[in-house]
Amino acid sequence: MRVVIAGAGSVGRSIARELLAHDHEVTLVDRQPSAMRVAQVADADWLLADACELPTLREVRADECDVMVAATGDDKANLVISLLAKTEFGVPRTVARVNNPKNEWMFDGAWGVDVAVSTPRIMTAMVEEAVAVGDLVRIFTFHQSKANILELTLPQGSPLAGVRIGEVEWPTDTVLACIVRDARPLTPSPDDTLEGRDELLFVTGRDVDEQALERLLTRGPASS
């Protein structure tokens, strides 16, 4: 896979190292000379230029890349890069970093963004997930489909503890995708039994009533 990353700061370099470790082809672009820390990601291609400009995107052959990652510290730049990549070069997938959560509403298909990643929102979700048992936490939202990834740690006293998964009537457009038990991820099957302290990961549609799902998990079917 060929990936162009706009923004060679700590975030961009970290992404590049991960992708290179999985044998992907990576190009890092940044307009700041101070960001050209080539030795830190020596296996990537580097370009000192402004990724918001069409000649730069032509030079990195954006039309040949599989993914464009807009990882700069400027939300306006990330939107422009995503829009140009999608509309001018037909990049199949764009991933954009959201620096200010107040701007998150703009990071959608209208600006050419397929996936928006808001670090503050993810960090908040991780904090909530770490301290809350019985609270449904939204981990991630896919901006194109509006589907959500939700997490809940099943309380010890939940009426669903000890119940077979196949016997639970989940809300429409709700899929139990994974159970994490004793630090091990498990693929749920209808014959598996839910246990207290299970971490449950759900994928849900955009219109799912999250409060109803939380009530089902913590109070049982009679209260859902």
Automatic annotation (TrEMBL):
<keyword id="KW-0633">Potassium transport</keyword>
<feature type="domain" description="RCK N-terminal">
    <location>
        <begin position="1"/>
        <end position="117"/>
    </location>
</feature>
<dbReference type="InterPro" id="IPR036721">
    <property type="entry name" value="RCK_C_sf"/>
</dbReference>
<keyword id="KW-0520">NAD</keyword>
<keyword id="KW-0813">Transport</keyword>
<dbReference type="Pfam" id="PF02254">
    <property type="entry name" value="TrkA_N"/>
</dbReference>
<feature type="domain" description="RCK C-terminal">
    <location>
        <begin position="137"/>
        <end position="219"/>
    </location>
</feature>
<dbReference type="InterPro" id="IPR036291">
    <property type="entry name" value="NAD(P)-bd_dom_sf"/>
</dbReference>
<dbReference type="InterPro" id="IPR006037">
    <property type="entry name" value="RCK_C"/>
</dbReference>
<dbReference type="Pfam" id="PF02080">
    <property type="entry name" value="TrkA_C"/>
</dbReference>
<dbReference type="InterPro" id="IPR003148">
    <property type="entry name" value="RCK_N"/>
</dbReference>
<protein>
    <recommendedName>
        <fullName>Trk system potassium uptake protein TrkA</fullName>
    </recommendedName>
</protein>
<dbReference type="InterPro" id="IPR050721">
    <property type="entry name" value="Trk_Ktr_HKT_K-transport"/>
</dbReference>
<keyword id="KW-0630">Potassium</keyword>
<keyword id="KW-0406">Ion transport</keyword>
<dbReference type="InterPro" id="IPR006036">
    <property type="entry name" value="K_uptake_TrkA"/>
</dbReference>
